[in-house]
Prior knowledge:
The chain is 47% helix and 13% strand. The chain has 9 helices and 8 strands.
Amino acid sequence: MTEFEQYKDSYKSIRMERRDGILQMTFHSEGGPLIWGHVGGPHAEFAHAFGDVARDPGNQVVIMTGTGDIFSGPPADKTTFPRGDADNWEIIRFNGMQLTTNLLEIPAPVISCINGPAYRHAEIPLLADIVLASDDTVVQDSAHFPNRTVPGDGVNLFFPLLMGWTRGRYFLLTGQTIDAHEMKNLGLVNEVLPREDLLPRAWEHAEKLMEQSPLVRRYTRLTLTMPLKSMVHQYLGHGLALEGLAAVHESTGRVGYSWE
């Protein structure tokens, strides 16, 4: 177990505050909208932070939100391609496994507030139990296939699962952008609200969830996440390995490959 005071100020890209068992995690970069990165930065911090949150029984309900008018960005381009050798990609693989696994290991209901465009790792807020989005939210997987990278770090599992396999594969292969109202129609989000109403609404939901007994809350979360954790255990490592192998090849600057 961990205690809140031990980790609440440990992360540069996550501000944490807790009141009456409700933990609010606000993602940011130096006080502004979250700027995603792979080695180090949010990719590593989220992996460890979700683990700390999961091990602290004082967290009875969790709210995740971003800062300003963007949830996560910027859109990826060729300058953000994750170049590196096998050692570099082992760090990414490890953090990628821990990020998704530890998020799903949180034994408390999770509410997300998508406060604007999520261009990078939109699956994080979409894996919450209750998903709220601002009316100007859009999601896109800009960092993978459109950026010459295999979508193997969980987006390959969760977008097809949440959207339906045909729509999800189209989304990943084309770099499609989906707005908040279409997301609601597809079942990706539960409520679309003005940005200023997101957090008050999230706290309303959290306080309602707190009316349940602790074990009902905990065991309901465990029941609802078990199929997702099983999928992660079975497939995520394989996807990350393929993503890394292709990225290492791209990093060499070679074109094509030979079966000989």
